Model the fold of this input.
Amino acid sequence: MVKNFNTTLIKNFLTYSCGAVILRGITWATTLVTVTILTTSEFGLLSLINNFCALFPLFLNLGLRQVFGLEYFHHDSSGRKQVFHKVIQTYLVIAIPIFILLLISQHWLNHLMFLGLASKSIMILAMFYCFIQFFSELYLQVLRYQSNARKLTIIQLTAALVSITSTAILVFYYNFRILGV
Done:
């Protein structure tokens, strides 16, 4: 039992560590490429958008992922599924009206958060990203709780590679500049 635990622990540690190092490397490479392509003002706007996309989901998810984390281990398999579905339902009931309200008042949000520099398409993409992020983070949280290190790392690496590929195509081939990033 102890030997099996140590083997599993070491495998999970190596999987998570290698994945984290690769993801940090991808972020570093993407940042270097982005800095060389975008103008100073475009990079500043991208930084504002990245900060918005990092902070706004913290408020939008309303602590539901933490509630899920607290409740998950107190239930059996069917109870966990019920908690999962209730968390998603609660999120949708609260987040959809907020998302619609933000879409309606995006002009105001643009001036408040992005100094009036973001285009309408960038605003919509940023808000959509914030809305969808809850689902991906919840799924990754479930994989962590199930100790599914390999699947979790593969999903994260695949998402990063798809992101880099699509960014490269949109920026270099289609010349979308900041919208491509």
User: Anything to note?
Assistant: The longest helix spans residues 2-37. The two ends are 48 Å apart (CA to CA).
